[in-house]
Q: What sequence folds into this?
């Protein structure tokens, strides 16, 4: 899996660099580039694999993979702001507002969102209908009924009178991290005009397994490997899958979800092997 | 002009309310709705008038007008943040981060940007090609080569060693306020697949005239009418069109630009009368 992720990393880096190089030089563009450095590129991999499963070329899928990673980078930059999660370390580097300034971090995030939408208009992706399907789904995954809604719930939970229960956390994370993962995993059929159901089902399970693994890493992880502060949720008294299920319970639930994700790919047969590997990878990773 | 603006105000309010009502209820959606209250709706008027000049119906143009106003609202919410211009009054009401919280204001801005793109995918607007032209132009107007770039320059100017000169301010404002105004004014031909040149020329002049009038109002304006703090630029020692040209010089320049804007509409004849009225309105307004 790591070899495939490294391949995707190089492809996405080139696509992002090309898009960023077209912008006016200066601190804003530098901060945007800084924010897109590193990361596991799991979302990009989802886009490229989902594309292959539906006969869509890497060339067509790459702007979409870059858009998803640009969007993900914006969400991290804004989530790390002092008014939000107030983090100083991300991907092993100072967070964007520490490296530059709070104003530049806000603006870099804003511009990365716009860049993501710009990437989805690219000719290489396919016909106008295909691109519009993508853009519509993307706007929904990002906005006030998707990722941003999830982040707002997460912030609200910090000052809530009682911690969230399992149902509320599942709903929250289904939006905060799940919505973009579902978009990425269904990009292939969205471009090709195919059926999104199986990949959407896979992505729902994968997204939750991924988040549970993140919660486990916040407890058991090594800051040098994860590249971000650990133990933060517990210190903040936040409910997580670990606080609600226990460490063993969380591990069992992640494994169950990963298996369900794999099973959702049955109709794709051998061709979906990389996506099955990914389901195992997300729960076994130490970064 | 005010009667036409009031008509547009009601249409845009209805379109925004419809789009906002589809979002999950809660503080995030409330803050987004709050941020879209009020405003002169000059950008929406530009969209609707430019549409009429190119045979595009109000029904087709309205989602675009709503998108432009949602985007404008997001930019005001983020510009007003403590890390940016740190404003507490906007459109006569507490700014979004004062009324809610800084985190909610950041997220409401983020979600308003996504909502703007979602609105541009609406079927009513026209065929897929038309909507893609709009979305591509919009992403360019908003992002790191457009509005956000202008705002970054504006923030950087506050801590620069010497104030900006006329050329630098003109370039900065051409991006910060000009890019979205140019998008709005060319929305009609972008939808219809027509020639954008005359309206783009009009919008360049109008945008600058508008900004000069804003700088004049910051010096001569009444806070009760403008609904925002006045005298801020001078207190911050910021270069403005007034500090560089003097009050009389700025008034003369605004009048000259408004006349050039009107002249750019010659080929449209009588049909462009509302846009000519608007050019006079933006330099004569006291709000």
A:
């Amino acid at each position: 899996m790591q070899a495939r992720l490294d391949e995707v990393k190089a492809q996405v880096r080139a696509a992002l660099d090309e898009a960023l190089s077209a912008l006016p030089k200066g601190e804003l563009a530098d901060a945007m580039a800084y924010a897109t450095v590193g990361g596991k590129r799991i979302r990009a991999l989802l886009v490229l694999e989902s594309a292959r499963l539906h006969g869509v070329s890497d060339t067509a899928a790459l702007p979409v993979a870059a858009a998803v990673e640009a969007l993900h980078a914006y969400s991290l930059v804004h989530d790390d702001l002092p008014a939000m999660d107030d983090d100083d370390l991300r991907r092993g580097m100072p967070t964007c507002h520490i490296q530059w300034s709070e104003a530049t971090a806000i603006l870099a995030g804003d511009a990365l969102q716009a860049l993501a939408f710009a990437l989805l208009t690219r000719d290489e992706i396919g016909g106008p209908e295909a691109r519009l399907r993508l853009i519509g789904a993307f706007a929904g995954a990002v906005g006030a009924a998707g990722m941003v809604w999830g982040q707002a719930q997460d912030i609200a939970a910090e000052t809530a009178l009682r911690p969230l229960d399992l149902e509320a956390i599942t709903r929250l994370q289904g939006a905060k991290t799940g919505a973009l993962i579902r978009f990425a995993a269904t990009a292939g059929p969205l471009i090709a005009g195919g059926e999104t159901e199986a990949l959407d089902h896979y992505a729902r399970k994968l997204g939750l397994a991924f988040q549970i693994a993140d919660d486990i890493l916040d407890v058991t992880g090594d800051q040098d490997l994860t590249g971000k502060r650990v133990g933060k949720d517990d210190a903040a008294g936040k409910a997580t899958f670990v606080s609600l299920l226990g460490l063993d319970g969380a591990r069992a639930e992640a494994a169950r979800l990963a298996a369900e994700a794999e099973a959702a790919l049955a109709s794709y047969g051998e061709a979906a092997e990389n996506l099955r590997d990914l389901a195992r990878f997300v729960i076994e990773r130490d970064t």
Summary: The longest strand of chain A covers residues 89-90. Chain A touches chain B through 50 residues (CB under 8 Å). The domain at 2-284 of chain A is CATH 1.10.600.10 (Farnesyl Diphosphate Synthase).
